Protein backbone atom coordinates (compact mmCIF):
# COMPACT_ATOMS: atom_id res chain seq x y z
CA UNK A 1 0.00 0.00 0.00
CA UNK A 2 2.84 2.39 0.81
CA UNK A 3 4.37 1.79 -2.63
CA UNK A 4 1.04 2.53 -4.33
CA UNK A 5 0.60 5.63 -2.18
CA UNK A 6 4.09 6.87 -3.02
CA UNK A 7 3.53 6.22 -6.73
CA UNK A 8 0.21 8.07 -6.67
CA UNK A 9 1.78 11.01 -4.85
CA UNK A 10 4.61 11.12 -7.38
CA UNK A 11 2.15 11.19 -10.28
CA UNK A 12 0.08 13.93 -8.64
CA UNK A 13 3.20 16.06 -8.09
CA UNK A 14 4.25 15.47 -11.69
CA UNK A 15 0.83 16.51 -13.02
CA UNK A 16 0.79 19.61 -10.80
CA UNK A 17 4.32 20.51 -11.92
CA UNK A 18 3.40 20.28 -15.60
CA UNK A 19 0.16 22.16 -14.97
CA UNK A 20 2.09 24.99 -13.29
CA UNK A 21 4.55 25.11 -16.20
CA UNK A 22 1.65 25.20 -18.66
CA UNK A 23 0.01 28.10 -16.81
CA UNK A 24 3.25 30.09 -16.61
CA UNK A 25 4.03 29.43 -20.29
CA UNK A 26 0.52 30.52 -21.30
CA UNK A 27 0.86 33.74 -19.30
CA UNK A 28 4.21 34.46 -21.00
CA UNK A 29 2.94 33.61 -24.50
CA UNK A 30 -0.32 35.57 -24.24
CA UNK A 31 1.25 38.97 -25.07
CA UNK A 32 3.18 37.35 -27.93
CA UNK A 33 -0.01 35.85 -29.34
CA UNK A 34 -1.79 39.19 -28.93
CA UNK A 35 1.00 40.89 -30.89
CA UNK A 36 0.66 38.43 -33.77
CA UNK A 37 -3.13 38.65 -33.63
CA UNK A 38 -3.11 42.46 -33.87
CA UNK A 39 -0.50 42.43 -36.63
CA UNK A 40 -2.64 40.29 -38.96
CA UNK A 41 -6.05 41.85 -38.38
CA UNK A 42 -7.57 44.84 -40.23
CA UNK A 43 -7.89 48.22 -38.57
CA UNK A 44 -11.66 48.00 -38.19
CA UNK A 45 -11.24 44.82 -36.12
CA UNK A 46 -8.43 46.18 -33.95
CA UNK A 47 -10.50 46.14 -30.77
CA UNK A 48 -12.43 42.98 -31.57
CA UNK A 49 -11.97 39.48 -30.18
CA UNK A 50 -8.33 39.23 -29.09
CA UNK A 51 -8.04 35.49 -29.67
CA UNK A 52 -9.94 35.08 -32.95
CA UNK A 53 -9.56 37.86 -35.57
CA UNK A 54 -12.60 38.56 -37.72
CA UNK A 55 -10.35 38.67 -40.81
CA UNK A 56 -6.71 38.13 -41.77
CA UNK A 57 -4.84 40.78 -43.73
CA UNK A 58 -1.30 41.84 -44.61
CA UNK A 59 -2.10 45.53 -44.95
CA UNK A 60 -0.34 46.33 -41.67
CA UNK A 61 2.89 44.84 -43.00
CA UNK A 62 2.54 46.84 -46.21
CA UNK A 63 2.10 50.02 -44.19
CA UNK A 64 5.09 49.08 -42.03
CA UNK A 65 7.23 48.60 -45.13
CA UNK A 66 6.14 51.98 -46.51
CA UNK A 67 6.90 53.54 -43.12
CA UNK A 68 10.54 52.41 -43.33
CA UNK A 69 10.47 49.22 -41.29
CA UNK A 70 12.65 47.30 -43.75
CA UNK A 71 15.51 49.81 -43.66
CA UNK A 72 15.24 50.00 -39.86
CA UNK A 73 15.52 46.21 -39.59
CA UNK A 74 18.57 46.28 -41.85
CA UNK A 75 20.09 49.00 -39.66
CA UNK A 76 19.45 46.89 -36.56
CA UNK A 77 21.13 43.88 -38.17
CA UNK A 78 24.16 45.94 -39.26
CA UNK A 79 24.58 47.56 -35.85
CA UNK A 80 24.10 44.27 -33.98
CA UNK A 81 26.52 42.36 -36.19
CA UNK A 82 29.12 45.12 -36.06
CA UNK A 83 28.89 45.82 -32.35
CA UNK A 84 28.83 42.14 -31.39
CA UNK A 85 31.64 41.21 -33.78
CA UNK A 86 34.06 43.90 -32.56
CA UNK A 87 33.21 43.22 -28.92
CA UNK A 88 33.82 39.48 -29.30
CA UNK A 89 37.11 40.01 -31.14
CA UNK A 90 38.46 42.35 -28.46
CA UNK A 91 37.03 40.17 -25.68
CA UNK A 92 38.73 37.04 -27.04
CA UNK A 93 42.14 38.72 -27.23
CA UNK A 94 41.83 40.33 -23.80
CA UNK A 95 40.34 37.23 -22.16
CA UNK A 96 43.18 35.01 -23.41
CA UNK A 97 45.74 37.49 -22.09
CA UNK A 98 44.02 37.72 -18.69
CA UNK A 99 43.66 33.95 -18.48
CA UNK A 100 47.10 32.81 -19.62
CA UNK A 101 49.54 35.59 -18.74
CA UNK A 102 50.56 36.82 -15.30
CA UNK A 103 50.48 40.56 -14.86
CA UNK A 104 50.43 42.96 -11.94
CA UNK A 105 46.97 44.12 -10.89
CA UNK A 106 45.18 41.68 -13.19
CA UNK A 107 42.22 41.11 -10.87
CA UNK A 108 41.85 44.83 -10.18
CA UNK A 109 41.88 45.60 -13.89
CA UNK A 110 39.27 42.91 -14.55
CA UNK A 111 37.03 44.39 -11.87
CA UNK A 112 37.51 47.88 -13.29
CA UNK A 113 36.48 46.69 -16.75
CA UNK A 114 33.36 45.04 -15.36
CA UNK A 115 32.53 48.08 -13.22
CA UNK A 116 32.20 50.21 -16.36
CA UNK A 117 29.16 48.10 -17.24
CA UNK A 118 27.59 48.87 -13.87
CA UNK A 119 27.47 52.58 -14.69
CA UNK A 120 24.00 53.77 -15.83
CA UNK A 121 23.99 54.53 -19.53
CA UNK A 122 22.25 57.86 -18.99
CA UNK A 123 25.35 59.18 -17.19
CA UNK A 124 27.43 58.71 -20.34
CA UNK A 125 25.00 60.22 -22.81
CA UNK A 126 26.14 63.87 -22.61
CA UNK A 127 29.94 63.31 -22.87
CA UNK A 128 29.52 60.74 -25.66
CA UNK A 129 27.08 62.99 -27.51
CA UNK A 130 29.46 65.98 -27.33
CA UNK A 131 32.46 63.86 -28.32
CA UNK A 132 30.61 62.31 -31.26
CA UNK A 133 29.34 65.69 -32.41
CA UNK A 134 32.88 67.10 -32.45
CA UNK A 135 34.32 64.03 -34.18
CA UNK A 136 31.57 63.82 -36.77
CA UNK A 137 30.47 60.35 -35.62
CA UNK A 138 26.93 61.31 -34.66
CA UNK A 139 24.40 59.69 -36.96
CA UNK A 140 26.89 57.21 -38.43
CA UNK A 141 27.00 53.43 -38.33
CA UNK A 142 30.57 53.54 -37.04
CA UNK A 143 29.64 55.71 -34.08
CA UNK A 144 26.82 53.43 -32.93
CA UNK A 145 28.89 50.28 -33.51
CA UNK A 146 31.69 51.66 -31.35
CA UNK A 147 29.25 52.49 -28.55
CA UNK A 148 27.69 49.04 -28.71
CA UNK A 149 31.12 47.40 -28.70
CA UNK A 150 32.03 49.37 -25.58
CA UNK A 151 28.69 48.46 -24.00
CA UNK A 152 28.94 44.69 -24.55
CA UNK A 153 32.71 44.24 -24.13
CA UNK A 154 32.88 43.94 -20.30
CA UNK A 155 30.38 41.09 -19.95
CA UNK A 156 31.73 39.32 -23.04
CA UNK A 157 35.26 39.56 -21.62
CA UNK A 158 34.27 38.05 -18.30
CA UNK A 159 32.27 35.24 -19.90
CA UNK A 160 34.95 34.28 -22.41
CA UNK A 161 37.69 34.42 -19.78
CA UNK A 162 35.78 31.96 -17.62
CA UNK A 163 35.51 29.59 -20.58
CA UNK A 164 39.22 29.89 -21.40
CA UNK A 165 40.09 29.25 -17.74
CA UNK A 166 38.39 25.86 -18.05
CA UNK A 167 40.67 24.81 -20.91
CA UNK A 168 43.67 22.96 -19.37
CA UNK A 169 46.95 24.85 -19.56
CA UNK A 170 48.68 21.57 -20.37
CA UNK A 171 47.33 21.85 -23.91
CA UNK A 172 49.00 25.24 -24.35
CA UNK A 173 52.27 23.96 -22.92
CA UNK A 174 52.24 20.94 -25.22
CA UNK A 175 51.60 23.19 -28.23
CA UNK A 176 54.48 25.48 -27.21
CA UNK A 177 56.79 22.47 -26.97
CA UNK A 178 55.74 21.56 -30.51
CA UNK A 179 56.88 25.00 -31.65
CA UNK A 180 53.50 26.66 -32.17
CA UNK A 181 53.05 30.39 -31.61
CA UNK A 182 50.64 32.08 -29.22
CA UNK A 183 48.38 33.13 -32.11
CA UNK A 184 48.22 29.54 -33.36
CA UNK A 185 47.34 28.27 -29.90
CA UNK A 186 44.62 30.90 -29.50
CA UNK A 187 42.90 30.54 -32.88
CA UNK A 188 43.56 26.86 -33.68
CA UNK A 189 43.36 25.22 -30.25
CA UNK A 190 41.71 27.40 -27.60
CA UNK A 191 38.88 28.98 -29.61
CA UNK A 192 37.65 25.68 -31.15
CA UNK A 193 37.56 24.28 -27.60
CA UNK A 194 35.28 27.05 -26.32
CA UNK A 195 32.93 27.34 -29.31
CA UNK A 196 29.83 26.88 -27.09
CA UNK A 197 31.07 29.64 -24.81
CA UNK A 198 31.64 31.97 -27.74
CA UNK A 199 28.13 31.26 -28.99
CA UNK A 200 26.64 32.03 -25.57
CA UNK A 201 28.64 35.26 -25.32
CA UNK A 202 27.62 36.27 -28.85
CA UNK A 203 23.95 35.60 -28.10
CA UNK A 204 23.94 37.72 -24.93
CA UNK A 205 25.83 40.54 -26.66
CA UNK A 206 23.54 40.45 -29.71
CA UNK A 207 20.40 40.57 -27.56
CA UNK A 208 21.76 43.54 -25.60
CA UNK A 209 22.58 45.48 -28.79
CA UNK A 210 19.36 44.50 -30.55
CA UNK A 211 17.21 45.81 -27.69
CA UNK A 212 19.23 48.97 -26.95
CA UNK A 213 17.28 52.20 -27.23
CA UNK A 214 18.87 55.14 -25.37
CA UNK A 215 22.08 55.58 -27.39
CA UNK A 216 20.29 54.67 -30.61
CA UNK A 217 17.74 57.42 -30.00
CA UNK A 218 20.33 60.12 -29.36
CA UNK A 219 23.17 59.13 -31.69
CA UNK A 220 21.37 57.83 -34.79
CA UNK A 221 20.08 59.74 -37.80
CA UNK A 222 17.16 59.14 -40.16
CA UNK A 223 19.39 56.91 -42.30
CA UNK A 224 20.88 54.90 -39.43
CA UNK A 225 18.09 54.62 -36.86
CA UNK A 226 17.34 51.02 -35.81
CA UNK A 227 13.94 49.47 -35.29
CA UNK A 228 13.80 50.31 -31.57
CA UNK A 229 13.88 54.01 -32.45
CA UNK A 230 11.41 53.58 -35.30
CA UNK A 231 8.89 51.96 -32.96
CA UNK A 232 9.06 54.91 -30.58
CA UNK A 233 8.28 57.38 -33.36
CA UNK A 234 5.22 55.67 -34.85
CA UNK A 235 2.10 57.76 -34.72
CA UNK A 236 -0.74 57.87 -37.18
CA UNK A 237 -2.97 60.71 -38.22
CA UNK A 238 -5.44 59.91 -35.42
CA UNK A 239 -3.13 58.45 -32.83
CA UNK A 240 -1.26 55.18 -32.78
CA UNK A 241 -1.84 52.66 -35.51
CA UNK A 242 -1.55 49.53 -33.38
CA UNK A 243 -1.67 47.22 -36.38
CA UNK A 244 1.39 48.89 -37.88
CA UNK A 245 3.17 48.83 -34.51
CA UNK A 246 2.41 45.13 -34.02
CA UNK A 247 3.52 44.21 -37.55
CA UNK A 248 6.87 45.97 -37.05
CA UNK A 249 7.26 44.21 -33.70
CA UNK A 250 6.64 40.84 -35.34
CA UNK A 251 9.33 41.48 -37.92
CA UNK A 252 11.57 42.98 -35.22
CA UNK A 253 11.63 39.93 -32.95
CA UNK A 254 12.05 37.31 -35.69
CA UNK A 255 15.80 37.80 -36.45
CA UNK A 256 16.93 37.64 -32.82
CA UNK A 257 14.60 34.71 -32.07
CA UNK A 258 15.94 32.81 -35.08
CA UNK A 259 19.51 33.58 -33.99
CA UNK A 260 18.89 32.25 -30.48
CA UNK A 261 17.20 29.11 -31.83
CA UNK A 262 20.11 28.58 -34.21
CA UNK A 263 22.62 28.93 -31.36
CA UNK A 264 20.56 27.26 -28.64
CA UNK A 265 22.48 23.99 -28.52
CA UNK A 266 25.74 25.93 -28.28
CA UNK A 267 24.26 28.27 -25.69
CA UNK A 268 23.13 25.39 -23.46
CA UNK A 269 26.56 23.78 -23.72
CA UNK A 270 28.24 27.13 -23.14
CA UNK A 271 26.25 27.92 -19.99
CA UNK A 272 27.22 24.53 -18.53
CA UNK A 273 30.79 24.58 -19.86
CA UNK A 274 33.29 23.70 -17.16
CA UNK A 275 30.68 22.65 -14.58
CA UNK A 276 31.86 19.04 -14.89
CA UNK A 277 35.58 18.57 -14.43
CA UNK A 278 37.13 15.99 -16.67
Explain the overall architecture.
By secondary structure, the protein is mainly α. 74% of the residues lie in helices and 0% in strands. It has twelve helices and no strands. Helix 3 packs parallel to helix 6 (141-165) and helix 4 (106-118) crosses helix 6 (141-165). The longest helix is centred in the first third of the chain and has 38 residues, at 2-39. The radius of gyration is 24 Å and the shape is globular. The model has no long low-confidence stretch (mean pLDDT 85).
Q: Helical proportion?
A: over 70%
Please count the helical segments: 12
CA(first)-CA(last) distance: 44 Å
CATH top level assignment of the largest domain: Mainly Alpha
The CATH topology of the largest domain is: MetI-like fold
Count the domains.
Answer: 2
**What would the average pLDDT be, to the nearest integer?**
85
CATH superfamily of the largest domain: MetI-like
* Gyration radius, in Å: 24 Å
What sequence of helices (H) and strands (E) makes up the elements?
HHHHHHHHHHHH
Amino acid sequence: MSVVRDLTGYRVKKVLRYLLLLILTSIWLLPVYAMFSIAFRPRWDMYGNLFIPAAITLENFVEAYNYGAFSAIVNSIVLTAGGTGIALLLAVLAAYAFSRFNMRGKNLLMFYILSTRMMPGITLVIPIFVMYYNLGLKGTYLGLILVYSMMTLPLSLWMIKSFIDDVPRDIDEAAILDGHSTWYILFKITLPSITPGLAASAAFAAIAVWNEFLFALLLSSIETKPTSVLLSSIRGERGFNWGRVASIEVVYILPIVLLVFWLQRYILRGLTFGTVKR
